[in-house]
Design brief:
- This protein has about 575 residues and is mainly alpha-helical.
- α6 runs parallel beside α8 (about 150-170), α7 (about 130-150) packs parallel to α17 (about 335-390) and α9 (about 170-185) packs antiparallel against α10.
- Among the domains are: about 1-110, no CATH class; about 370-430; about 440-585, Alpha-Beta Plaits, CATH 3.30.70.
- The protein starts with 20 loop residues before the first helix and ends with a strand.
- A five-stranded mixed sheet has the order 2-3-1-4-5, sandwiched between helices.
- Helix content is about 70%, strand content about 5%.
- The longest helix is centred in the middle third of the chain and has 56 residues, at about 335-390.
- It is built from 23 helices and five strands.
Length: about 575
């Protein structure tokens, strides 16, 4: 502790001597007798400009020159210094340390605008760490501070984060509204880099919303703006995002070129997480182009270790899918199953994060509405108090108004609470369903399956697990488009519900389904599966793809865990695929 403030190890310690002219002159300035506080603030502002417009490592060298003086500075300069160092920690892939630095700064008695900056920064870092509940908590506090501050320039960072977070939870209209406000505000800003940052947050919302043409247009405009400013870091992030979009649209040559540029830019600017995410898109594209050689196994393992160590389950799931497909093409069925199981585990963890993120959004939305009600009621109370002070006659009237207002408040809060309970119940139900198929999603299927196994053991029932996988689904998407692929998924989902009306049916992967059914014997289960295979889907038109499904069936045994039961069904499904697809195999 120095002067009542927390002490820190600086982000740039251990780098050695600095040969930059700017840092040398800054050192002369700071060692000169009688340095003024405004000189320190000017030096901090210069370091901030270098961090955002040139390279953060050059800015850190400038901060290292300032470090001996910072503990004796005023509180504002102290907070600005450590917030900029926290940014550099995040870019070095030390996001936990960056978040800890910001959290400790929030404990200080800072001015409102600095508190707002810290909340905005903390929300960004929480997103990098996939801690969406914490991200929404900081966003809520930032929105409240922004309302208190009422300064559009200071609100820009909050709007940027709201754009990203509301887009991530599927609230696209609200995200796009915030994004348009942020871009308009940034274009009128005195800081040119603001538009680059705002567009970097805005562009992916169109991709998540499925607005492909608008997404590509926004990405390209954002890249143009950032490159014109010389901001290679944000341009690299955008190039990575556009490469991912183009790859999903099967424009592989364009995607490959962009991914190469993104990896180079992000590596040179020192943004480690961004570099690894761009490298993932690069290897995915090279696999699709048949350019991923055997000598790149080390790159895949490096990416796998990085994402697994940091708990980035969404990225790890994508990588495990790629490695499973690669092993299958190499004829290594056992390794393909290992990667497929790793994919399922990573996806299940990711879905848990998604549910937590959605609930966090609901809490923020409720908190904002409740705060708005509080503000409105406080304003009304102040108006009533003013009337009460005027005359004794008005006091009686004011008391009546207060009583009425109190009753109204009780009724309003009761209605609001009832609505929140109903809304939460509704979203809890939605969080258990897969949006496209209407079946149980991965997390809810296996959670309910555990309960059903316990009930079966208690009641002596027989259970059977059926795993189903649409054959050559990627070919359907490639030949007929993702919209037709979604229709096929919907048709298979409806047919499974019709065939197994009393069973637990779920979509547990992209084109993979699971059915947990109680039956007297495996023969009746196989009879139902065969009935599914013989029944033609409704609404099939000339030119539609031929859709077949492979099945693996496993009977639950008394000493079975859900994992062992699933493993046998998975193995049977794989055997059905190997035997030529469009069939079932009983484990």
């Amino acid at each position: 502790m120095v002067n009542g403030r927390p002490g820190y190890a600086h982000a740039g310690q251990g780098w050695g001597d600095c040969a930059l002219t700017g840092a040398f002159l800054l050192g002369l300035l700071l060692t000169s007798p009688g340095i003024a506080e405004q000189d320190l603030r000017a030096a901090l502002e210069h370091a901030r400009e270098v961090s955002y417009q040139e390279h953060w490592r050059d800015a850190q060298r400038l901060l290292d020159e300032l470090a001996p003086r910072i503990d004796q500075s005023d509180l504002r300069a102290y907070a600005d210094f450590h917030l900029l160092e926290a940014r550099h920690l995040a870019l070095q892939d030390q996001s936990l340390e960056a978040l800890d630095r910001a959290t400790r700064l929030l404990e200080l008695d800072l001015e409102t605008d600095q508190l707002l900056q810290l909340r905005q920064f903390s929300a960004n870092i929480a997103v990098l760490l996939r801690d969406y509940e914490l991200a929404f908590e900081h966003l809520l506090q930032a929105l409240l501070l922004e309302a208190e501050l009422n300064d559009p320039a200071q609100a820009l960072g909050t709007f940027n984060m709201a754009t990203y977070l509301f887009g991530r939870v599927g609230e696209y209209d609200e995200a796009l509204a915030y994004g348009r406000r942020a871009v308009a505000l940034a274009r009128s800003s005195d800081t040119p880099n603001d538009e680059c940052i705002a567009r970097q947050r805005f562009s992916p919302v169109f991709k998540w919303a499925g607005l492909v043409e608008q997404a590509e247009e926004e990405y390209r405009e954002a890249i143009r703006v950032c490159l014109a400013l010389g901001n290679r870091l944000f341009a690299g992030v955008l190039q990575h995002g556009l490469a991912d979009l183009l790859r999903n649209e099967n424009r592989l040559d364009e995607a490959h070129e962009l991914a190469l540029v993104a990896v180079e830019s992000l590596a040179e600017t020192g943004y480690v997480l961004g570099e690894f995410e761009a490298r993932l898109v690069l290897v995915e594209t090279e696999f699709d182009l048949d350019l991923l050689g055997l000598d790149q196994a080390e790159e895949l393992q490096t990416l796998q270790a990085y994402f697994a160590e940091r708990g980035f389950w969404d990225q790890l799931a994508r990588l495990e899918t790629l490695m499973a497909r690669r092993a299958e093409l190499q004829g290594d069925a056992e390794q393909a199953l290992v990667h497929l199981q790793a994919y399922l585990d990573a996806r299940e963890r990711f879905l848990g994060h998604e549910r937590a993120m959605r609930l966090a959004y609901l809490q923020v939305a409720f908190g904002l509405r409740f705060k708005e009600q509080q503000i409105a009621l406080l304003e009304e109370s102040a108006r009533v108090a003013h009337l009460e002070a005027k005359t004794a006659t008005q006091q009686r009237r004011a008391r009546t108004v207060i009583l009425t207002l109190s009753l109204f408040l009780i009724a309003l809060l009761g209605a609001l609470l009832a609505r929140v309970v109903k809304t939460r119940s509704h979203f809890r139900h939605l969080s258990r369903l897969d949006r496209l198929s209407g079946l149980a999603n991965h997390g809810w299927f296996f959670e309910r399956a555990e309960q059903m196994l316990a009930e079966a053991e208690r009641d002596g029932k027989s259970l059977f697990l059926i795993l189903a996988d649409i054959d050559r689904f990627k070919d359907i998407n490639d030949r007929f488009g993702h919209q037709k692929g979604d229709q096929v998924l919907g048709q298979v989902s409806r047919r499974l519900r019709q065939t197994f009306p009393d069973a637990l049916v779920g979509r547990i992967g992209g084109e993979e389904f699971a059915v947990l059914v109680s039956a007297s014997d495996v023969t009746s289960v196989a009879r139902d599966v065969e009935a599914f295979r013989r029944r033609s889907p409704d609404g099939v038109r000339a030119g539609d793809p031929e859709v077949t499904v492979s099945f693996g069936i496993a009977a639950w045994q008394r000493d079975d865990s859900l994992d062992s039961l699933r493993g046998r069904a998975d193995k049977a499904l794989y055997q059905a695929k190997e035997a030529g697809r469009d069939r079932y195999v009983i484990a």
